[in-house]
């Protein structure tokens, strides 16, 4: 995906969310629902105008941050090797945030929105897309599985991200499935633990096997 395509798609997504927010604003209630519990019931509200603007602004923030990453990355950790993947990540994240903004706005009008199901499906798709490209992310300080061991070794970075990609896709399918067939809460909690811990532990074990932790004796030539 080219930079031009990325910018155009992201601006379209953001523009749609802002346009819908502006159109609906006069008819929206003073308190905008912004959080749903696991039962699908609204349990928190944010007053106007922030309740209307916070998610479109979040999409803009994500877009700006993703565009800054190539600019501020230090030498040796540039993103030039995976520019296409970075563009895909940018479009995916901005599109996801914009879609959530639209769902919240629609729910605020009083329409029946199955928010939990939609969010689980959206997060599932998000993880599947990110997982499919995670293995192509090269070493950098901003994206990917950044542990001391992946940052210290190109081999550990690459192999950890290939594994992480499979983990993301698997968890993504479970999240998407949960939108239609409610899985036990333990399965979802376990999925989050897997995503968080498995790549980290794997990077440590792999680094220890490939590089080791013993210091070389400086007195030995």
Structural class assignment = mainly alpha
- The average pLDDT is 92
**Poorly predicted runs:** none
Order of helices and strands: HEEHHHHHH
* Terminus-to-terminus distance: 50 Å
How many strands?
2
Number of separate structural domains:
2
- Give the biggest beta sheet: 2 strands, antiparallel
Task: Estimate the global geometry from the Cα principal axes.
Answer: globular
Percent of residues in beta strands?
Answer: 5-15%
Q: Helix count, per DSSP?
A: 7
Radius of gyration (Å): 21 Å
The helix content is 55-70%
Question: How are the strands of the biggest sheet laid out side by side?
Answer: 1-2
Structural description of this entry:
With 221 residues, the chain is mainly alpha-helical. The chain has two domains: 1-113, no CATH class; 115-213, no CATH class. Helices cover 67% and strands 5% of the residues. A two-stranded antiparallel sheet has the order 1-2. β1 and β2 form a beta hairpin. The radius of gyration is 21 Å and the shape is globular.
């Amino acid at each position: 995906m080219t930079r031009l395509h990325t910018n155009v798609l992201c601006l379209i997504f953001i523009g749609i969310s802002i346009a819908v927010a502006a159109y609906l604003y006069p008819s929206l209630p003073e308190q905008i629902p912004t959080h749903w519990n696991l039962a699908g019931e609204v349990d928190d509200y944010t007053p106007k105008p922030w309740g209307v603007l916070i998610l479109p602004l979040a999409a803009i923030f994500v877009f700006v941050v993703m565009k800054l990453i190539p600019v501020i990355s230090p030498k040796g950790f540039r993103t030039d090797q995976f520019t296409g993947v970075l563009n895909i990540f940018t479009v995916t994240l901005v599109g996801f945030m914009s879609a959530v903004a639209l769902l919240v706005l629609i729910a605020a009008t009083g329409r029946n929105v199955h928010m939990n199901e939609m969010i689980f499906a959206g997060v599932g798709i998000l993880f599947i897309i990110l997982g499919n490209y995670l293995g192509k992310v090269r070493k950098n300080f901003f994206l990917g599985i950044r542990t001391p061991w992946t940052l210290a070794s190109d081999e550990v970075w690459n192999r950890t991200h290939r594994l992480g990609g499979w983990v993301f896709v698997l968890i993504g399918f479970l999240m998407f499935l949960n939108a239609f067939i409610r899985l036990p809460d333990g399965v979802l909690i376990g999925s989050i633990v897997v995503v968080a811990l498995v790549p980290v532990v794997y990077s440590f074990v792999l680094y220890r096997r490939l590089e080791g932790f013993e210091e070389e004796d400086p007195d030995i030539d």
